Every structure is written in structure tokens, then in C-alpha cells.
Amino acid sequence: MKCDSSTYLFYLGHPAHYHNVSVVMKQMLAENCRIILVARAKDVLFDLLDNLPYNIIFLPPRKGKGKFSLVVEVLKRQLILLRICLKYRPKMMIGTDIVIAHIGKLLGIPSIILNEDDAEEVPYLVKYGYKYATKVMVPECCSVHPYEHKKVAYNGYHELAYLHPNYFTPDKSKVEHLFKNNQPYFILRFVELTAHHDKGKKGINIMLAKKLIEKLKPYGNIYITSERSLEAELEQYRVAVHPKEIHHVLSFATLFIGDSQTMTAEAAVLGTPAIRFNDFVGKLNYLEELEHKYQLTFGISTDKENELLAKVDELLNTDKLKQVFNERQKKMLHSTIDVVAFWKDYFMNFSSKN
């Protein structure tokens, strides 16, 4: 179906949100849809938006911390988005933020929240977002309680919307510089864990990071990608790569270890062995499915540091490790759908009766 030149607004609050919709936006643009991006300052998101053929509206970074600061920030975002919608009159708003649901409800514009975290782990988004959204689009395994009547489920994962082989081809030439001394490399990922749903959650601390580095050193090069500031002794390992190339980096890594949900899932769908070490282990169904149904990743809680180190040893000593995981990846791809095709068809043919 060709677009009728309708305007679609995509709201981006995190680098992962851009990746999620990057391919579907490109395809919709090619079918004559008008695309507006509204982007919040977060990590490397603005770097990812360089030279894109869309109307992009950049929002300033949040000032301050705490609940009061968050409330003020949300009110500011609502006001800005209201003005944008009154000016451009989008047919639909798509994203992972409560403000699209609020402004959509106010103006009668359908809002689709994209998410893959279970409702129980994102209560703020559920209470203030799902409640007012038109639909909530999630993997089949994902809980949206108590808004099941709004659930639009698909057999796949966000990460397949941009890392499926139909849309992403790993390019080794982009990461040749990481194979120093012709040795393989490992990726460590550290996140800030400062979102509202991260409260009280822990991940990889400096002492554990140093243990991992010492364990991996004999096997190859070590690179760190981090949202948070790194201690001086870890800074030397920070990977020098443009954010747009990070998935090529992940694809050719021998092993990924991190406390990030998103990058763990990205490594998994790319067929790169992935270990996640944080307090969300056992609580997010899409990662549980990638682990227990497809054996593409391993989740270890922060009270089991020795288990993490033992799992690293096990994988380092697994014969033909990448080949084993490539076979598991093929099984996963065979069992899931083309997420981009599903999303595009749903957005462009949306009916409130769906």
C-alpha cells in the first residue's frame, strides 16, 4: 500500500529507539510517507541522527535529577510535543514515551507505544503511558498487564527490526582496526542504570570489570562501550567507534558481557555469545526467551559473581563457539517473523477498529 503523504511522528528518547524504527521509517519514507522525528538528548542518540532525510526536532537534555525534575521535564516535553502536533497534524505517533500517549489522547491522534520490557518492570510507563495510548506493540512473550486489550503482539523482538539479515549485513572492514595483532576481541558494556525502573538495580562494578579484563586478556583484545563515566584504569579500553558502527563491532566480537538489556539482546540476535549481569535477570520475558528457548544469551544476577566468571571460562573453552551460536541464531530467525514488514503494514493500514 502506498502512503497517502500522511505524516508520521516518531518520538525517540534513547539510541535504541532510533535503531528500533530506523528501517521501518526508511521504508515508509520510500512509500511517500512524511516522517518527523522528535528526539531527546540521551547518550549518543543525536550522533545517530546525523544526515538523515527526515524533519528532525531536537529536544534539550534533562536538567536535574529526582522526581520533581522528572515531572517538570515531562511537562516541558508535553508542551513542545503539543506545539509540534498542532503544526504538523501527524496521522499517528509512535515511540516509547508517555508524552505521545498524553498528547495523542488530547488531540485524538493515535499513539502506538513500542516496548519489549514486561509491564511489571516499567510501572511508570504502564501507569502513565499504556493507560492513555491507543495501542501497545510488543513481542508475544511480553506482558502488558492490565492493558491486554491494547496489546498488538508479534513473534519477534525489537532488535530484529534492524538486525535481521534482511536489513543488516555485518561488514568486517568497519572493524578491522579492532583485531590488533590478529587477535579476536571481546566487548564489555556498562550502562548508567539511572532510569526510573532501574532504581536499586546493580550491574558490573569496577572490581568485577577488572576481574573480567584479567580473565579475557590472554584470549584477545578487550573493548569497553559505556554510558557512564569510566574510572581511569578502564578508560584505556574504551572502544573508539562511531555509534553507527556498533552493531558491526558486536557482530564480529567473540563474546559480549554487559549490564545492558538492549545490547545483550542485540548481540544475541546477531549470533554473538552474550552474558548479561544485572538485577533484571529472570524478569524480562524477551531475554528469558532468547536465553531458554534459543540459548543465545545467559543472564546472571549480581549475587552470583562466581557463576559469571565460570560462564566466561566455559564459553572461552567451547570448541567452535561462534559456529555453535550461528546455528542457534539460524533457529531463532527461522522461528520469528519479519518485524519490519509487520510494523510497516500495521502503521500504514492502521484502523482504530484493529
User: What amount of the residues lies in strands?
Assistant: 15-25%
Rg from Cα: 20 Å
Oligomer: single chain
Whole-number count of domains: 2
Percent helix range: 25-40%
Structural features, described:
With 354 residues, the chain is an alpha/beta fold. Helices cover 40% and strands 17% of the residues. The protein has 14 helices and twelve strands. The protein has helices at 15-30, 45-48, 67-88, 98-107, 123-130, 160-163, 206-216, 232-235, 246-252, 261-269, 285-292, 305-316, 321-335, 339-348, and strands spanning 7-12, 34-40, 55-59, 92-95, 111-114, 135-139, 151-154, 185-190, 221-226, 255-258, 274-277, 297-300. A seven-stranded parallel beta sheet has the order 3-2-1-4-5-6-7, with helices on both faces. A five-stranded parallel beta sheet has the order 9-8-10-11-12, with helices on both faces. Helix 3 (67-88) crosses helix 4 and helix 4 runs parallel beside helix 5. Residues 193-201 have low confidence and may be disordered.
Task: Give the key terms.
alpha/beta, Rossmann fold, globular
Helix and strand topology:
Elements: E1 7-12, H1 15-30, E2 34-40, H2 45-48, E3 55-59, H3 67-88, E4 92-95, H4 98-107, E5 111-114, H5 123-130, E6 135-139, E7 151-154, H6 160-163, E8 185-190, H7 206-216, E9 221-226, H8 232-235, H9 246-252, E10 255-258, H10 261-269, E11 274-277, H11 285-292, E12 297-300, H12 305-316, H13 321-335, H14 339-348
Parallel strand pairs: 1-2, 1-4, 2-3, 4-5, 5-6, 6-7, 8-9, 8-10, 10-11, 11-12
Helix pairs in contact: 1-14, 3-4, 4-5, 7-12
